[in-house]
Amino acid sequence: MKIRVFDNSHDAGVYVAALAEQVIEDHASPVLGLATGSTPIPFYEALVRLHQCGLDLAPVKTINLDEYIGLDPSHPQSYAWFMQNHLFSHVNIPKDQIYLPNGVASDLEAECRRYDEVIRKHPVHLQVLGIGINGHIGFNEPDDALLSQTHIVDLRQETVASNARFFHDIEEVPKRAITMGVQAILQADQIVLMAFGREKAQIVAKSVSGGVRTDVPASILNLHKQVTVVLDRDAAAELMDSSGRLRIR
Length: 249
Ligand code: GLP
Hints:
The protein is an alpha/beta fold. It is about 30% helix and about 15% strand. It has helices at about 10-25, 40-50, 80-85, 110-120, 155-165, 180-185, 200-210, and strands at about 1-5, 30-35, 60-65, 65-70, 100, 125-130, 150-155, 175-180, 190-195, 225-230.
């Protein structure tokens, strides 16, 4: 794993956007795997700026990791809305090249299989990930086993509590989601895991240096050959020695 520590999330976002630009230029039909949450916002801002500076996103396909069950794409807390707001409405990716799980599908199992087919047809070149406070990636929660395919997940209490900051009331937070499985994540050519803030420091250290464990889903990234962990100084705190240097590389 490559670890890069930035002074702030803005600089980190610019770096990840530059990685995305490279992938976009290297492929005729580039596929970006995208994440939600507050962490990737500086990346989307930087990608939008790159687009305004001339980067053409028309050939890009995007595949999002997950969606809440029960939230319509028009709901301001749905991940479809998030993506629209932070990226899609500002760039020129054609609508029919944008893929997200449908959290209001009438047959959710069929929706999971449809999504696996989307992933199979469009192998991801660059997968961007955040990390949940408990180590989840997408909505692959800590458990005895991690599932490989797209599936329906009961969100853990700590995830619901953490994501409640985006809703008026914790009762409004959906308790279930559809998420891409870990196989799809590991199949990406290249993965970037982003994390910012002191509250992520411990789980980042566990994920990066604690061996592969299903109760820390992000640790599975140790099995992938091209992962870049992009942190700010706070999120890297537990990976630094007393002189502020990374203990692992
Ligand atoms: C949600 C998403 C994850 C994301 C996590 C962290 O649970 N499903 O993909 O990584 O939030 O969110 P934040 O970046 O806001 O800390």
